[in-house]
Amino acid sequence: MPDSKIFEGKTTNEAIEKGLKELKVSKNDVEIKVIKDEEKRSFFDILAPRIVKVEMILKEKQEEKKYENEKERKQEEIKIDFNTMEKAKDAVKEFLDKFLKQTTGEDINYKCNIKGNVIEIIIDEKQADFLIGYRGETLNALQTILSAIAVRENNEKIRVELDVLEYREKRKKALEDLAEKVAKSVIRTRKSITLEPMTPYERKIIHSKLQDNSKVKTTSIGEGMHRKVVISLK
Is the pTM of this model over 0.85? Predict the structure, then answer.
């Protein structure tokens, strides 16, 4: 779910200004809800200063931008030494070698490189295409397992990025083409279109592709695995 926070002030405008300043965003970047006080006020309460509360919810693009900025900042703060990264890489390779041998019956070649705090694995052999799964579900699941193995003994912020047969780049291109196609349909029919549920990474691709479009806008609805992108007229 999007980040949300409650701010207080003597007036609605004061509460909003306080929130925008703390979150370091503009009004266009958040959804603002005034929280009504449902409790009955006594005579003595009336004499007390009035407090207005507003809830601010970061919109999807700002939420993901904030997440990316925080992730980059954390990666910069934590500098993992080379020996630790090598140890994690060896553990990941040991598991992956056994896994590929058991599932394919063959020794599958792949590239495994260390880039900062990331272990990058690229598999280009056709026999491994089953690792992609339906719309990358198997690929993402295996990547999660490999990341867990990388940090299991080292307790460090190490990430594993796995790609098979350049799937991630192909998926990105397919989503960008879909975004443009749907945007044209929305402009032509003047009706909003809701896309199928997507991962945060995939939704980010749609948002980024259409963020400079002067005629349509993108928002997200739903929660968790059911979160979807809605493309509509501005």
Answer: no
